[in-house]
Structures are given as structure tokens and as C-alpha cells.
Amino acid sequence: MSDIIQLLPDSVANQIAAGEVVQRPASAVKELLENALDAGADKIQLIVKDAGKALLQVIDNGCGMSVTDARMCFERHATSKVRKAEDLFAIRTMGFRGEAMASIAAIAQVEMKTKRHEDEVGTLIEIEGSSIVKQEPTASSNGTSISVKNLFYNTPARRNFLKSNPTEMRYIIDEFQRVALAKPHIAFSLHHDGNEIFRLPAATIKQRIVHLFGNNYNERLIPVEEETTIINLKGYIGKPEFAKKTRGEQFFFVNDRFIKDNYLNHAVNKAYSELLPDDNFPLYVLFIEIDPSKIDVNVHPTKTEIKYLDEKSIYAIIHSAVKRSLGRFNISPTLDFNQETAFSNMITHKAPEDIVPPSIAFNPDFNPFSSPKAPSAPRDNSTYFKEQYQPKEVSQNWGSLYEIANYQQAAQATIELDDEKEEEMPAVMNKLYMQIHNRYIVSQIKSGVMVIDQQAAHERILYERFLLHLEDRKGASQQSLFPQTVNLSPGDFELAKSLLEDIKSLGFDVREFGKNTLVIEGIPVDLGSTNINETQLFEHLIEGFKNSQQELKLTKRDALARSMARNSAIKAGTALSQQEMNTLIDELFACKTPNFSINGKSAIQTITLAELAQKFEK
Question: Where is the MutL C-terminal dimerisation domain (predicted)?
């Protein structure tokens, strides 16, 4: 039998490596941006077309490469950052494995122009599927420009797995933000299909956060800083009231490298435990500076996981530093019991001789017996309380006593009816419901008592109604008196654009209005005539949509209807009139699945007479 084990060709090996390193266009963006950082650039441009499927181009003004280095960078395991095994435990650069360029070149058409500052001409190299098509001298500016065209052109199965353009663009923006946050002293820009998404000048950490996420983040940030013998920690955390129900604004950087670490994330969340519910996630951008010999970054192909020599100590430092910052900046309200401020506004600073005593004026013609409404003379307490409990004369509206009595008789008659006799009542007579703690609606039924969760019931009603609107595209809109503008982060703006037609189907009258801005001119009629903050409603709609897709992997329309229902339903604690309760119950039982809320839990509970008797041990 002949030997069957053989070495794979380089082109096949590169495609296998590409499957780990380059999973989507955003993965290639990460590798190219990190290479630009390692080249010492202080200005980096990212140009994207068709969400990275047609073009990804990174232009930097770094050190550039020689002719030999330009050719060698596309070989597997070719790197300028590691010479021996010990160097893996002293890494300060972003890249070190030497696999990224070879992997990208194996699955795309790559063009690279590069020139060192001391050279007169640069080098042009074109590669398709790991094969060099062209290599020649060229006129080029200092630094490197790499264009990745038609990603996955020779692996169509992988290309078919890519999501929609807005979704892939959101992934690209996420990677761009991580790199830009790690290096605030470097200028970045991002263009997509000819539109400028970001233009970030060199700045401080706080300024970079504001430039990336919006001006309203300036008031949300709390500084964190701690220096120890184990790590140095600095950065910013968000105020609790601005926490969101979706992840996405949590950033850890170790030696300026973005990492994902659930253990350290738990340290931050635990510091917020007394200030936030479990399903809310605070903003944080934290930088950990640590001795490279105390960590191992060669753990995962994407280099987003790290092993620490003393993980428990790092956890404790982060938890205590975040908690101290929350307390130091008076996030929790405090009371000063040593100072009484109730009378502070009554103290006068006038000199005693300038104080004028109040004068007394009276009407000499006043007759206390001329009017029944005249105030009486001062009385002692015993006389006052005695008069309060004496029967008083009813001078008007005495007929309402009979109305109240008739209403009570009708209510009692309705309650005493069996289900079989209720059909004999006039159609105008609605069943009476009782509200408990402004949260539950209770009604007597033949077998016992029915209890309905009003919020869960309303969510179910709205969810099915919005799903219907998304299918028939007939959601009615109620025009706002004053249009409202909504400023979104670039990632959320791209998401909103992809959902715009479906959002309009729900009844929103909304349109694009400049960079990362939408104008809301109308809201769904289904929301009623209550005072609604259109801006907050729309922002919560986007947040809820992201949360539904992340947690439940729902379809786009289902996630949108679910988010809209949750954010516009009446909440626990809302008082309802008899008519409102009647309408709510009627609409609930007209639903396809009235017994369950949109999260799959019960919306209706029935307590039978037997269960009640058992409670009383009868």
C-alpha cells in the first residue's frame, strides 16, 4: 500500500488558514488596520464599497516596505514582529503570526502599493488566489495602500454565507471603532460607497469616544483610573441611567489590543449590581496596561482572547476601581444630615433697622353674618373636630345618590350572574373588572377568578397587530405637530436604513435627514393619543430589535414587531378605567394566542374555586 500522507499546496493551506482568520469583510478590515498601526502610521483611511464585498482599501502613511518585504509579506508565517519563541511573551504589536496577508490574498484579488520614505519609487504587486499577477515599480506616496477586491471570489460557498450589506457594514463599523478607540492619537477616516461615515482627528480618549458615538455621550462618561503593581487601569465608564438593554458599547483593551473577556466583564457588571437590573448593560471603555510577560495573546486565531498569570487580582482591581468611580462622582444620591436646608431660603441678610414690620389692613364694613361662606372666628381644637363629624346638609347634586345606588346594584347584579345568563344582559352592559396594584386585571368567571397581566396582554395585542401591518404594509400614521430629529450612531443608522421600509409599514412617517440623522414626522396610530417621546420610542425600537435578534435569532420582521410591542405597550403601574380594561380584554381574546405573552410566558392565570377553598382549608 502506497503512502497517503502528503503536504498540501500553499494555495490550499492558505485557503484553510483564511477560513479561521478571514470570516467576513470585517475580519479583513481588522487585519489591514492593525498592519497599518504596526507600520507606525498617524493617519489611516478605510474605503469600503458594497459593504466590503466589492472593495476594501486601507491607506496609511506608515514606514512602507522595500521591494523584498512587499513580496515576502504575502508568504505564510512571514512577519517582522517575531524572531524567536520568547518574543511571543513580549509582544507590543497588533500582529505577529504572519498569516493575515497570505490568507487574504488566497481568497481575493489584492493590489498593494507601498513606498518607504527614503525610496524614490514604490512597488506595485497584484495577487489573485495566492498567485502573483504583476510586480513592478510604481509612483506612490509614502506608506502603503492595499486594495482587497471581490472577497471570496474563488470560494462562492463562503460568499453565500455573508449577510445583507447593512449587517456586514455594521460589523465593519464595529471593527473600525475598536481600532480607533485603541489609538485615539491617530487620525482615522471611513468612507462607504462614496459617503463619509467617520472623520476622526487625533484626540484624547474621551474626545474619541464622543466622536465615535455622538456628542450626547459627553455627559454620560465617568473617568476611571487606577495604578497598581499588577496593572494600570484607565478609561471611562457610563452613568447607570444611560445603560442599554443590548451589548455593543463594552470595550476592554489590553496593551491597546481589543479583547473579549466574560470574566472581566463580570467584574464591571458586579460593580453596577446595585444600580442596574440584570438585563441592562453599561458603557465602558477600559484600558489595561500590563507586563507582556504576564499574559499570553497567542490563544485564538482572531487574537481577541488573552490568558493572564494573575486573573483573580485583575478582576478585583477592575471591580473596586469601577465601584469607587461610581461612588466618587456621586452616582448614588447622598444626604447631609448635618445641615438643615428647609429654612435656608427664609434667612434675610438685611440689617435690623432696615426691616419693616408688616402692616395690618381690615374692612370696617365687614359683616360675618351677611354670607354663608364667611370665615368663622378662631376655634379651639375640640370644637373643630366636633363639627367635622357632624352630619352636613347636602345643598345640591342630591340626585347623584340615586345614581350611585343604581350603579352599585347593577354591578352586584353583574357579578352574581352565571356565565349562562350573561348572554341575556343588554349589549351595552359591560362586565366589570377590578385592577390590582395597577398591574393585574381581575374578573369573576364561572369556575373561579381570572387574572390578566395587563402589560403582557397589551404586548400580545400590539405584537400581532404590528405583524399584520408588516405583512399588508398598511400601518396608519398619526402626524406629529412638530417633527423630531433622531441622531444615531453610525452602526445604528446603517441598521435603521435597512429597516426603513418595514418601520414605515408599522405606521412611522420617517425619512433620512443628513449624516446619521432621521426625521420622524408621524408615529403609528396604534400607539394612541398619549404623550409619546418620538425620539426615545424610535431609539428604543432600534435597541429592542438588536436585542431580539441577538438573543432569540428572530427574523427581521418578527424582531421588529416584538421590539415595537414591548416599547409601546402600557406598563405595570398604569391605572386603567373600566372602559380601557373592557377594550383591552376584548382585544386580547381576539388575538390568535391570547393566553401567552410575546416572551412565551402566561398572560392569563385562572384560579379555580377549588384552589381558593384549598387555600382556606375548606
Answer: 432-576
